[in-house]
């Protein structure tokens, strides 16, 4: 921010004042409850991955690969994008998944410069077991999420 011209960029206080006045106590409660539900699910997911012998990030990578639209693999760059990590971090993550026997690298037949990352049978089994547990956990928090989304729709429309 330019100290000589403070009006050049409004402060967060001034910039959000009009919007903030429209936020109700019920909105704060709903947001807090939503964040709490997300944190509980995240904690469950991290613990489930650890019990399966992998890290949460490895689980996320396997899920991203298996859930890739219209194909059964992802490139390193796509894994980095899906996990919101840098390319070199995704390379290390894939290296560890390869060493665990959960994925394999294959050269892309359409572009020899690109590597495809495919899930192995062992990776499929690990992911399937985790996914069954995650779907059950989501069923448990569905009523809370539904209630919060319905409240948001009532107060803010579509």
Automatic annotation (TrEMBL):
One of its GO terms (biological process) is response to stress. SMART domains: HTH_MARR (SM00347). Residues 1-22 are annotated as: Disordered. The keyword Nucleotidyltransferase does not apply. Keywords: DNA-binding, Transcription, Transcription regulation. One of its GO terms (molecular function) is DNA binding. Pfam families: MarR_2 (PF12802). Residues 24-158 form the HTH marR-type domain. Gene3D superfamilies: Winged helix-like DNA-binding domain superfamily/Winged helix DNA-binding domain. This is DNA-binding transcriptional regulator, MarR family. It comes from Hyphomicrobium facile. The lineage of its organism: Bacteria, Pseudomonadati, Pseudomonadota, Alphaproteobacteria, Hyphomicrobiales.
